[in-house]
Amino acid sequence: MRSGYVLAPLLVGLSFSGTFPGAVAAENTSGQDSTGVKKQSRKETVVKKNVPVVRTEQAVADEPEQVIVTGTRDPSQTAARSISPITIIGGNQLRATGMTDIREALVQLSPSISREVNGSDQGSVVDALSLRGLNADQTLVLVNGKRRHTTAAIAVDASSQQGTTPVDLDMIPISAVDHIEILQDGAAAQYGSDAIAGVINVILKSNNHGIHLQAVNGGYAAGDGFTTGENLNAGFKLGHRGFLNLSAEFKHQDRTQRTGIDPRTGKNNDLATGQPQVTRESIETNFGYHVTDAIELYGFGTFTHRDAERWAFLRAPSTTAADGLSGMYPNGFEPVETMPENDYGFTLGFRGKRLYGFDWDLSSTIGGDHDTLGDYNSANADAYKETGYSPSRFFLGSYSNQQWTNNLDIRRGVDLPFLYSPLNIAFGGEYRRDTYSIGAGEPLSYYLSGAQGYQGETPQDAVNAARHVAAAYVDFSTQIVKRWRVDLAGRFEHYDDVGNARTGKISTRYDINRFIGFRGTASTGFRAPTLAEQNFAAFISSPNYATGQIAANSPAARALGSPGLRPETSTNFSAGMILNPLPRLHINVDGYTIYIKHRIVDGGYASGARAVEAYAAAGVDTSGFAGDETAVSTNYFTNGASTRTTGLDITARYSSDFGRYGKVDWDAAVNFNHTNVKNIARTGEGAPVLNAQQISLMSTENPSNKLIFGGIWRQGKWTVAVHEIRYGHTTSNLTFVSGSNAFSTTDFYHQINRPRFVTNLEVGYQVLPQLHLALGGNNVGNAHPSRVPSFTADYNNNLYDTLSQQLSEEGGFYYLRADLSL
Description:
With 822 residues, the protein is mainly beta.
């Protein structure tokens, strides 16, 4: 094997020509895109099916421009001539980061992508990401062009992702990825709900031969968080008419601890802050078989099982005594939340060409996620006080969702004498059925104070919800004259729970010459409220208080004045410039503005008599809570605000040849991003539904800018990749945990998280033609976010602003990677 294949560059995604050096058609050797159409450049150069998988980076760079399938219905569209900004990141680039899942790899490679420093409860397990500073569920995720189902685990705690149930990228094996196309543009008119910030399209491998194995082992500078990831990918021929590609993967990561000295114990023994412990096994298959020369049967699917454990806050001996649990835990205890999870997604379809002049694609996709919630090393304090007994292990309930999607896509090119190129006409329809359910836990998990660590779901919380979605779209694209291209798209969707949505998009690009071009888009979009946002409920009670989340569309919420949830709507504008001032220098500049109305937030708060009335409508009796109505409170999701996000993406790449001293591919990319919150709604009591903390979660927790720059040097068997990431500042409003303002919902500490630099370094060597070894580190300097003051860190747990979407609190990660190709 040649060194360029197994060590793809750790480079930033570039929208011009799709990518960085070495990413073009790096692995999809079948010569087919996700629609089954053979990849061609505008000169009709075909990528042949049996080209050897192992190729040098220079050979890859010399290949035809890569055809894209995201953001366009034109089968000949290339990344270099894309109307909208699009980044292509090769699968080898993802795996070369040393990360064992897709989300963490993308954060290293794309300045437009960020993630929370550290989530809480089940939200810390889900691989949710933000594109252009928006919520995770405002980015649509596709696999081979088909809508991917979302997780069932809702982010329940206060954070920028609160209420989201996004696609969990950790459920897709990283070894199965050929490349990822990131459309950084609103695309609801093309794909439907959720595509407000953009689209991430995961294209699976389809090579029909070869076996590749990879092992990654590493850990953090703190000496914890050992992570191992082993994967295998193999391709096979199905006779002379098809291919079968298989991937299998195992991942384990130990928990990390990022806490300080607990003042109650004088020891650093609280494990609540840090990454959870996760063990994951996943398999994937992708196949295609030509039933005839014009008709192909295709299918792909994934199945993943994951066990996750998250440590809750330490119950010190003093706290245990106050709760009356000293007889059960004389030395204190720390509950552990568990979430065994099964996730699956399968697609089967037929596609064909030249049926009365039309290309067509008929497919059905079913996917789902089932989470079982548990808790061990725990107790129900009230049950123990009353009976002298409490179990230490609890079944807390379950979350499940399923999505069944059926698509028909039809396309044809029509020659018209007054147009420079054929008019590409595409149209089609979609039918989808969504389901969501919450299962109740065992009685002692929710009785009075319930299980410590995470209270179980009550029978009142249990729900089974479903909805039907029907959609139709049309798309026209052509070159009006030689250098001017236009694309028009329109879509209509009907949701039987929230009504209709109509969206449209117009895109255009004009190339003045081969050195400079301009492009721009204007579009409308929407995001339908998820079934989880409409139906999620959680009730927490004790002898002294009652609080919880009530379902937004329930009689209880309507008793508080909730009108129910309606879709978020958006208007997107973008304008860009493509520059090629030198033969090997390519620059892109793309600015954007995204207006979102009726954003869904967790903000319908009520307390006292109004909360008691709402719970009564939900069938919950609150009369026993110390007889004090002021001890009763509740909240629900509501369309609480509007936002405007403005930003700028700049990318550049350049190649240098130093002869016998090797070659260097340089790259740089930066994202500037800012969000303003306005038009804040009010509760039934007349108060704003968002306080200062919630506003900052939506507007200033994302870095104001993120820069990635560096390069990769190749000489003989050696490869060295160095990249610097600069995270811009973020600001937060943190809750006081001590002092006169302790736990205030109106007064907060204004935290400024200063900019941080992170260095990623990898050195690789081709030991044998079949074996490549690499030693690397992400954040080799062991940088951390800014520390927060002690009066905002409960028992010294949250030493850093865990709600920020800046660099990780985990510190430096160092790894050894081995790649073997047979």
